[in-house]
Write a structure and sequence with these properties.
single chain; 279 residues; mainly beta; Porin; 12-stranded antiparallel β-barrel; 1 helix; 59% strand
């Protein structure tokens, strides 16, 4: 017997509801208060392309960086996940010593994410708050490692309301070491506060149905960081996101809106391409 339209829609909604804990309209640069279900694993592979300049040290460095970032989340239970991020880096540029090409492993964030509040207002509409806690583990691979174990705590809010998605996140990192020739936020001897806000608009479908559970989104984000040495940056980050229950693709760019940096190099632009898989 053919499934009724209402039954088909209910089944579709169930598939989508199951997918929300894994991807949940998570933007490209901003974290979300979602995680894989118990005993499931999500793997996110990103390629970052960036340019750094205005070196405050006497090395006068100027280079391009390519990063392959692997992000793995394991669902310990429905509201708790273990997360790890492993960056592989390649830099090509120049300094007072001439041209150089370097490759290595960056420092590795390892943390738990715990959902402390959830309010589901529809089959796919939800409000969630999560907290995170962990540490950045040094890879020991110079010049890509800060050489210190830096603990951090943070919180994330996520809301899905029809075609609209919202994410707000903040994270404070306590720096226990660091280095004097820092390139990125958090590599110096100063503490780091990272803050992010994201808006997602579902382009298609306009409404979910039995044959419409794959989605395209436009994303717009503000991503900022502030260090206790006074350095601060704010980026605007538009992007495109495709989501299905088992896989997602993302493409985003970052451009500086505001930069006041004197203790490390400035990031001139950023381009990110990525894929997310759920097992």
């Amino acid at each position: 017997m053919m499934m009724s339209r209402n039954a088909a829609f209910a089944a579709c909604a169930g598939v989508l509801a199951a997918a929300i804990p894994a991807f949940g309209q998570e933007a490209i640069f901003t974290p979300a208060a979602t995680q894989p279900a118990k005993d499931r694993v999500s793997v996110r592979q990103q390629v970052w392309l960036s340019s750094y300049h205005n070196d405050p040290t006497d090395q006068d460095r100027d280079f391009y960086e390519a990063e392959l970032r692997t992000i793995v989340a394991w669902g310990i239970r429905g509201d708790l996940s273990l997360n790890v991020e492993v960056p592989l880096l390649y830099r090509s540029g120049s300094s007072v010593d001439g041209s150089s090409n370097e490759a290595g492993v960056g420092d590795i964030p390892l943390f738990l994410k715990h959902r402390v509040w959830q309010n589901d207002t529809g089959p796919t509409d939800t409000q969630r708050i999560g907290i995170i806690g962990g540490a950045v583990i040094p890879s020991g691979d110079n010049p890509f490692s800060s050489g210190s174990v830096d603990p951090f705590v943070g919180a994330v809010y996520t809301q899905v309301a029809g075609r609209h998605g919202f994410n707000l996140a903040g994270r404070y990192t306590l720096t226990t070491g660091g280095k004097s020739d820092a390139v990125k936020p958090g590599e110096s001897t100063s503490d780091l506060f990272r803050y992010d806000a994201a808006y997602l608009y579902r382009i298609v479908p306009d409404t979910y149905g039995p044959d419409a559970f794959r989605s395209w989104y436009f994303t717009l984000e503000l991503n900022g960081n502030a260090e206790t040495n006074g350095d601060s940056e704010l980026f605007i980050s538009p992007g495109i996101l495709y989501e299905s229950p088992e896989v997602a693709f993302e493409l985003g760019v970052q451009a500086p809106l505001y930069q006041d940096v004197s203790e490390r190099m400035e990031r001139e632009f950023g381009l990110v391409m990525g894929i997310r898989l759920l097992f």
